[in-house]
Amino acid sequence: MAEYRLEMLGISKSFPGVKALDKINLKVRPGTVHALMGENGAGKSTLMKCLFGIYHRDEGEVYLDGEKVEIHNPDEALQKGLAMVHQELQPIPERTVAENMYAGRYPVKHFGPLQVVDHKKMFEETAKWLDDVKMPYNPKAKLGTMSIAQMQSVEIAKAVSLQARVVILDEPTSSLTDNEVEALFRIIRDLKARGVSLIYISHKMAEIREISDDITIMRDGTYVGTWAMDEISDDEIVKQMVGRELTNIYPPKNDAETGEVLLDVQGYSSIHPRSFQDCSFQLRRGEILGFGGLVGAQRTELMEAIFGMRHISSGQVFIRGKKTRIRRPQDAIRGGIGMITEDRRGTGILGCLSIADNVSISSLDQYVDLGVKLNKGKIEQLVKDNVAKLSIKTPSSKTLIQSLSGGNQQKVLISRWLANNPDILIMDEPTRGIDVGAKYEIYQIMIDLAKQGKGIIMISSEMPELIGMSNRILVMCNGHITGEVQGDEATQERIMSYATQF
Amino acid sequence: MNSKKVNVADTKGANANEVVTVGKTRMNVVDLLINNGIVILILIMVLWVGITKDNFFSMSNFNNISINVACRFIIAVGVSGCLITKGTDLSAGRAVGLSACIAGTLLQRADYSGRFELTQNFPELNVWLILLVCIAICCVFGLINGVVVSYLSVPAFIGTLGMQMIIYGINLVYTKSVPLGGYRTDYTVIANGKLFGLLPYLFIIAIVIGVFMWFIYNYTRHGKYMYAIGGNEAAAEVAGVNVKRTKIIIYVSAAALYAIAGFLLGAKSGGAGVNTGSGYELEAIAACTIGGVSVNGGIGRVSGIVIGVLVFELLKTCLQFLGIDPNYQYIAQGIVIVVAIALDIRKYIAKK
Question: CB of A55 within 8 A of CB of A13?
Answer without folding.
Answer: yes
